[in-house]
């Protein structure tokens, strides 16, 4: 079983990377909370390390590797996927908020915050809280400045609005409405690139 990989960042894709280690290229799925930390890394140049959650079952014989920057992130993820109907793929896609924020929401029975996770509706949010409440307190104590953190929409919407006005020639009032509409349609947006794509789709 693979639990840790260190090697050359060979390739970056939307939701995964390929790491070259000891002559072998490993395809690794990255949750959004991890993928955001790779925006500045350069394929073919940077060496990286990831803690791996490894999954292989008779129903899914192809090994699935899910990567995290810190072992405690992996530990939280592996607790999350013990919840019924939360498999590794859904669990990885769901992690679009900082892990301490998710853990606090679980402990405080904050269904609305859990429902902000990608692919998690009200029923699954309630299942997550029921299964994990009382078990994730230590993760709620994690310092967000010491781990990988995904910007809240307010943090990156300003970047997008500035580019739309300064570089693409749109009016300020028009841009605010475009961005508001995009986030309302897709509240799981977690990066400037995703926000640009959603704005583009609405204009098309």
Class of the largest domain, according to the CATH hierarchy?
A: Mainly Alpha
Shape, principal axes of CA atoms = globular
Q: Give the H and E element order.
A: EEEHEEHHHHHHHHH
Identify the CATH homologous superfamily of the largest domain. Answer: 5' to 3' exonuclease, C-terminal subdomain
Helix content: 40-55%
Summarize the structure.
The protein has 204 residues and is α+β, with helices and mostly antiparallel strands. It has helices at residues 32-35, 71-80, 88-94, 99-107, 111-114, 122-132, 137-140, 153-166, 172-185, 192-203; strands at 4-12, 16-21, 24-29, 47-55, 64-68. Strand 2 (16-21) and strand 3 (24-29) form a beta hairpin.
Give your account of this protein's structure.
This protein has three domains: 4-68, Nucleic acid-binding proteins (OB fold (Dihydrolipoamide Acetyltransferase, E2P)), CATH 2.40.50.140; 71-146, 5' to 3' exonuclease, C-terminal subdomain (DNA polymerase, domain 1, Orthogonal Bundle), CATH 1.10.150.20; 153-203. Helices cover 44% and strands 17% of the residues. It is built from ten helices and five strands. It has a five-stranded antiparallel sheet, covered by helices on one side. Helix 8 runs antiparallel to helix 9 and helix 9 packs across helix 10 (192-203). The radius of gyration is 18 Å and the shape is globular. The mean pLDDT is 87.
């Amino acid at each position: 079983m693979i639990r840790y990989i260190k090697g050359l960042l060979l390739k970056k894709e939307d939701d995964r990377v390929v790491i070259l280690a000891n002559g072998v290229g490993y395809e690794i799925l990255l949750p959004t909370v991890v993928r955001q930390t790779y925006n500045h890394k350069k394929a073919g140049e940077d060496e990286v390390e990831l803690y791996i959650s490894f999954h292989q079952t008779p129903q899914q014989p192809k090994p699935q590797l899910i990567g995290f920057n810190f072992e405690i992130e992996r530990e939280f993820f592996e607790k999350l996927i013990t919840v019924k109907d939360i498999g590794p793929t859904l669990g990885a896609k769901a992690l679009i908020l900082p892990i301490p924020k998710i853990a606090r929401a679980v402990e405080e029975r904050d269904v609305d915050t859990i429902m902000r996770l990608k692919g998690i509706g009200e029923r699954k949010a309630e299942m997550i809280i029921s299964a994990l409440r009382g078990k994730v307190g230590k993760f709620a104590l994690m310092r967000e400045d010491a781990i990988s953190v995904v910007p809240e929409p307010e943090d990156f919407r300003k970047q997008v609005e500035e580019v739309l006005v300064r570089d693409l020639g749109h009016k300020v009032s028009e841009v605010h409405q475009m961005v508001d509409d995009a986030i309302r349609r897709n509240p799981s947006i977690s990066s400037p690139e995703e926000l640009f794509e959603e704005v583009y789709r609405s204009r098309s």
